[in-house]
Structures are given as C-alpha cells and as structure tokens.
Amino acid sequence: SFIAILFVTSVLIMPYLGNRWVIDIVGVIGPLLLLTFISKLVRFRIFGPYTKQNLFSDHGFDEVYWVWYTKLSLILAMILLPMYGDIRAVLHTYYMRCLSRNFFANGEDAPIRDLQDKTDYCPLLLVTATSSDYQSPIVGDDDTISELSFSPLHCGSTETGFITQPNYRTLGKCTALTAAGCIDAVALTLSSYLTLRFWLQVINLTWGNYILFTPESEEVLPTGLSKVIRQLPMQWQSAWVQLFDTLPSALAVGSIWLAIFVGFTLEKCDKTEESCQTEDWRTVIFIVAFAAFTFIVLLACCPLSWIAREMTQSVWIRQLLQLTGYHYRGDHPPPSLYITDGGCRDCTTLRQLLLRRKDKILLVLAASDKDDDLAVLKTAIGICTDLGLASFFDPKDPRLQIMGCDGRLAEFKEDKTISTLHLGIRYQKTTTEPAKSGHLYIVKNRLPPDQKAHPVEPHLTVDEMCGEVTRGCGRCPDGVQPFDSEAWGDMTTDSLGSFCCCDCMHTNGICGNCGPTFPHGSFANFMYMTPMWCSSLARLGFDVSEDAARLVSRPGSHAAQWEKLV
C-alpha cells in the first residue's frame, strides 16, 4: 500500500515539479515491486509447508495445488512459446490494422513492393524507422540507434546495410513501424533508464516489432515452401514466414521448458533408495536445463555462427536481452531487428533524400507542433549538417541565418500567412560529383489566419476530388448519411476535438467534442479518425500545399539572381 501511495503522489505532483519526479519514482517502484513479489513467493514456498501462511488468498500452502499450478504454468508456456512473438506484438498488430483501415483504399493492406509497379500514380515511397538493438562498427557511431529506411525496393541504411524488400512485408507494416512512437520508442532509444525497460516488458505497450533482416530475405525458407506461402492471403504470409524462421529457436527454448516440466513431475526423495535416485535425476535435469538456457542466451548475444543466428530469432530471448539494455555490435546486424518510431532520429526522411543529392525536395511537416517550433525540422537539419551531407542557407540572402531569433524558421513561426518555407541546400563536392545547390520547400499542417473560425464544410467526395462539382457540393455515396448543417450548427473546423471516434461525438456538445483541437489533435485520433476530421484534414492539405506544389514544379532554374553570380 505504501508503494501505491508513493506512485499516486508522484503523479499528483508532476504538474508542479515536472515529469522527472515521476520517472525517477516509477523507476524505483518497478524493480521494488518485482523484488517484493519474488521475496514473498520464495518465503511462501520455503516456509509455507510449515507455517501455512497465505500468498494471495485465505488458503495456506497446499502441496497438491502448488504442483498443479506449476505444471499448468509450464504446459501453457510450452504451448504459447511458438506464438509468443504474435502475442507480444498484439498492440502493434492492432495499430497496423487501425492505420490501414483509416488511410488505405477500402481499408485493405497491400505489399509495399507492389508500389514499384505504380510509378505513374505514386512516387517512390520512402519512410524511416530506427533500430535500438544494433550498433554499427562505423567509426564515430557511439549511439545504439540505427536508422533504417523502407521503400518498395530496399530496406536498411548505411549503418545496417541494405537488403531487398521481401514480398510479404506490407505497406501497413512499414507505416506502423515508422510511426510506432509509444513507450518502446522512449524506453529503448530516448532514455538510458533500465527501469523504463522493466515497465515496457511488464505492461507491453509496444507499438514496434521485430522484422527479419537477413541478406537472403525469403531464402531463409525452402523455395517450394516460399511458393506455397505466397499463395496464402497477404495478412497470413508474414506470420507463416516468421513462424518457420523462429521454429528452431522455439524448439530449443521449448525443450528447456519440457526438461523443467519433466524434472518437476519426478517424485521427491522420501528416504527410499528408489526415490533418492529419482531425486538425483531431478537435480541433474534442472542443472542441465539451466546450463542449456545459459548457453542459448550466450549464443544469442554473439550471433557469429549459424546456430547462434538461429537462437537470436527467439523473441522471448531477445526480449530478455532487451530488458538488460544489451545491443549487438558487429559488421552485420542480427537476423532480426527490433524496429520502432523513426522520429527518434529523422522522421522527415530528409537525410535519405540528401544522400541521393536531390535538386528539389518537397517536405510536408505533419508533426504535432501547434506552436510552430519546428523541432522535428531542426533535428533533421542538425543531423544532416553534422553528417556533412549538406548545408542550408536562406535563398533570399545567404548572409542571413536560418536558425535563431531572426532566422527564416523564426520568421515562419511568427508570420502565419506564410504557407511555404523555402530553404536552400548546398551539397559539398565529392570524389564522384561536383558541388551543387538544391532547394527545400516545406509546407506544414497549420491553419492559415483566413481559415480560423471557419465553419465546417460538407464531407469530401469523389466528385469534388475529381473536379466535377464545386467545393462542398459533391454527392454522397449510397448508404452514407448526407451532411446535416443543422446538426453541425455553428461549429468551426478549428474546434473539432480529437478524442472522438465518430461524427456524432463532435456534435454531442462539450462532453463529446473534447481533446486537442484540429489540425494537430493527438495520437489517439490517428487511430480513431472521424470522417469529418479526415475530410477537414484533406481540405487543409489541399489548400496549404497549393503554393508549395506550384513552386517546386515550376520549370527552369530555381536559383536566385545572386546564385548565378557566384
């Protein structure tokens, strides 16, 4: 009870003393709770047969019930072990499904590799994520975060190397990984507290997941089996590939649980010669099981041989290593990597585009940044500058700074009428390419002054998107309730709350229409996006991107007059 009171107190004082108090107190409470439980369990098992003390119920220690519960637990552990990876990733799967149903056509997921055949309709998609359990041997790489990019062609980075994008990896999977900014993103990449890792494993609030990362890609399976798996529905292909790939490690760990179960079922010594021999075998089985488990964990720490690389595929063992803060450093990453939010590094993919030395880049900033501080953009610029990929300048006058109180970014923050932020890029000379200039056009999800207090508009329709009708006059599809102006009343776009799952919650007064307002919202509304929020967001994107699309697509040179004189 004292620990619970301490935890509640830390939460109550957070608004006054900051969240560091909560992190410190929770960090201590977590291991303390575990230590208290283990101490109580050990005391109950050792002294329970003599004192008949209680553990969780009013009944004292009973040898029959203890054996029955232990055997049941071991049997369940063996049964659930092959499915442990899917059970642990249940929130990731749920998140992936929400994103797919909200943003994909007809709510259906599709292989990301299919996009390479649709270049006439869709540009080369490029998203980023980070891995927290591998450190590159590159000189100067002192952190444990490795950035990866996902495209229809390849997956990886200069730190991890690149592999061919497998057929079974879907667009929804990549989208969920690149936006997996939950507790795992904080505990594994943004904090060095091991106690946060403890809470991560206990409450399992993990939006990220493990992915196969082997140069052989699908060749980890026999060719015939791969062909059979490709005939399965898309949502099952990845699960079956993961199941067959983790099968050797699951059998190895499962055999240890089986050995413990067999040893536990053997009778204890009751001073007869036969029972004492059985007790000796019981001891040997436990010792061998413990030694085998230790050996498997050590193999997973150093995946240098083929059998060691197979052991690293065990999600159960990898999660145990993750709890200790272990990360592997070597020339090649382990065959599976834990992937989470790309925002831990650069969620704009600016670094990836600068690596390709693009002449023109259109960047859409959709981060939650209601004050226009542009922290995500500043982080991306800082990373690219530190890596020596490029430098940035004010295209109007290169003598002016872009950062600071008087820079271009500060001007964009203060002047809400600016819809497009234009920055110059200077690529350095390399051994194969000369120095050159580029242009970065940035558009952000913020309401222009003329759209504040703007009444909500009818839902966006296909007719309107195709330009067949004027704005707000499209015909609703069959079975969809048309826009009711009386129900919406005087509600404005910037008053739409984000803690809603359907339009009726917006129109249900103050109690229903709550949460951070449009257009920034909250993390929850991307999972439970209402039709009106989605429609308004699409209209806003269309309005604010018009100038940026015109600037980035205009023909001829984009260089200013002074650039031609340099």
Structure commentary:
The protein has 566 residues and is of the alpha+beta class. It is 46% helix and 10% strand. The chain contains 24 helices and 12 strands. It has helices spanning 2-12, 14-17, 19-51, 63-80, 84-88, 90-103, 171-178, 183-190, 194-203, 223-230, 234-265, 273-301, 306-311, 315-324, 350-355, 375-386, 408-414, 462-465, 485-488, 503-506, 509-512, 531-544, 546-553, 561-564, and strands at residues 127-131, 134-135, 146-150, 154-157, 161-164, 209-212, 328-329, 336-341, 360-365, 390-393, 420-427, 436-444. A 6-stranded antiparallel β-sheet has the order 5-4-3-1-8-6. Strand 11 and strand 12 (436-444) form a beta hairpin. Helix 4 (63-80) packs antiparallel against helix 11 (234-265) and helix 11 runs antiparallel to helix 12. The longest helix has 33 residues, at 19-51. The radius of gyration is 28 Å and the shape is globular. It starts with a helix and ends with a helix. The model has no long low-confidence stretch (mean pLDDT 81).
Please outline the helices and strands.
Blueprint: H1 2-12, H2 14-17, H3 19-51, H4 63-80, H5 84-88, H6 90-103, E1 127-131, E2 134-135, E3 146-150, E4 154-157, E5 161-164, H7 171-178, H8 183-190, H9 194-203, E6 209-212, H10 223-230, H11 234-265, H12 273-301, H13 306-311, H14 315-324, E7 328-329, E8 336-341, H15 350-355, E9 360-365, H16 375-386, E10 390-393, H17 408-414, E11 420-427, E12 436-444, H18 462-465, H19 485-488, H20 503-506, H21 509-512, H22 531-544, H23 546-553, H24 561-564
Parallel strand pairs: 2-7, 9-12
Antiparallel strand pairs: 1-3, 1-8, 3-4, 4-5, 6-8, 10-11, 11-12
